[in-house]
Amino acid sequence: MGLKVCKFGGSSVADGIQLAKIKEIVNADPERRYVVVSAPGKRFQGDSKITDLLFLCKTQKDHNIPYEQLFQAVCDRFSAIKYSLNIEADLDAELETIRKALDEGCSEDYIVSRGEYLSAYLIAAYLGFDFVDTKGLVLFDKRGRLMAEETNEALKAELAKHEYAVIPGFFGSDAETGEIKLLSRGGSDVTGSLVARAVDAEMYENWTDVSGLLMADPRIIDKPKPIERISYMELRELSYMGASVLHEDAVFPARAADIPINIRNTNVPEDPGTVITGDMDACGDKIISGIAGKKDFTVIDIYKNMMNKEVGFVRKVLMILEENHINFDHMPTGIDSLSVVIESSELKGKLEDVVEAFEQRLAADAIEVHDNISMVAVVGAGMRRNPGSSARILSAIAGEGVNLRMVNQSTYEISVILGIETPDFEKTIKAIYREFDK
375 CB contacts (<8 Å, ≥6 apart)? Predict the structure, then answer.
């Protein structure tokens, strides 16, 4: 196995005990040469994340409320990490620089990013690696959008100078002004993926507090089987339907460079975790890779005789949704009918207007609204190779007396989406899991 990039999340860098685990993991493989870290997370129930404390410091400063006690909690947390690990680093100077910036009215992005900055600064000293700041390397344009290619070139050039390095996640800077800017949701995961692409890594290891992905929600299925390997496309389907996995922005840089992502558990490093790869046949002989679902959808059924012969009918439907700033999730159709599946939150305060617009501009024969609908996705590239998979899914839920509202299969035949009444949500997932857990 070649060069690896490791990203450690907030729970993995929460305190000295966790950092000792990181050192063992990194030292166990000399190919783990680039380490991306988050800010320290919660150490125990009721604890605070460093990022939250820094945000509160900025909020209180902006409202002329004393923030010193909160900032001291940040200082104490990092000092405890430094002294517990006997790290040689000028932490006091770094903290004083941050305190001074806060007093002088620094930006929110700057102060929030200091959690990752200090985390990387101390961990670099602890591991004996170089510290590489992402300011000037992860680049944003004047509209706050990540400049992917420019970032790749900047990271590639800088990291080529460092055989081993620790890099803070979550932030970069404006390409013109140098002002600190934050990445969006899953920021540190995105940084790890960007670094993996820049150094042409063989593997991007994302270390967290779970041993990879599971076939189903453990709150519904007792001890669901782990997913050993899954393709990027399958992951996208599960993520879209609510599975707690990496954000799409964090996956894309590695996916574009065809770099596998390995989700691992810092607390149980011997577990192989889940490997995410570009190979659509990654799951081997397995028919399905996972089951995920979301609640709280509304389905608007539109009926019109000879709908299929009316040019522009679907365009009119989409225009009405666009005018009301509504996203739709699915749109299954028949010869004389069309159903629009929308998250109920999107329709709050808008449902009557949308239905009225449909009635007036579509000249529909009938329109029906069904709320309290849930969607369940059964995902697996193995369904393409196994005729009758969809029949098995439908037979399994029929055996439980589930009333199926709609069914939709993806173009690539790697997912089947079921629309059901919410009271049948857990029953549906359990029935499908039992059918394929054989």
Answer: 241, 293, 294, 297, 329, 330, 341, 417, 418, 419, 420
Give whole-number Cα distances, 6 to 150, 154, 186, 239, 312, in Å. Answer: 22, 19, 15, 22, 50
Q: Using one digit for the tens of pLDDT, what is the confidence trace for 30-71?
A: 999 999 999 999 999 999 999 999 999 999 999 999 999 999
Closest among 324, 175, 198, 172 to 254, alpha carbons compared: 198
**Cα dist. 289→232, 302, 339 in Å?**
12, 34, 28
- Run of H or E including 371: strand 366-379
Q: pLDDT by residue (tens digit) across 251-270?
A: 888 988 999 999 999 999 99
Question: Who's near 17: CB < 8 A, 6+ residues apart?
Answer: none
Which residue spans within 175-319 are E strands per DSSP? 180-182, 203-208, 229-231, 261-265, 274-277, 290-303
The answer to whether residues 89 and 122 touch, using CB atoms and an 8 Å cutoff, is yes
Q: What does the chain come to in residues?
A: 438
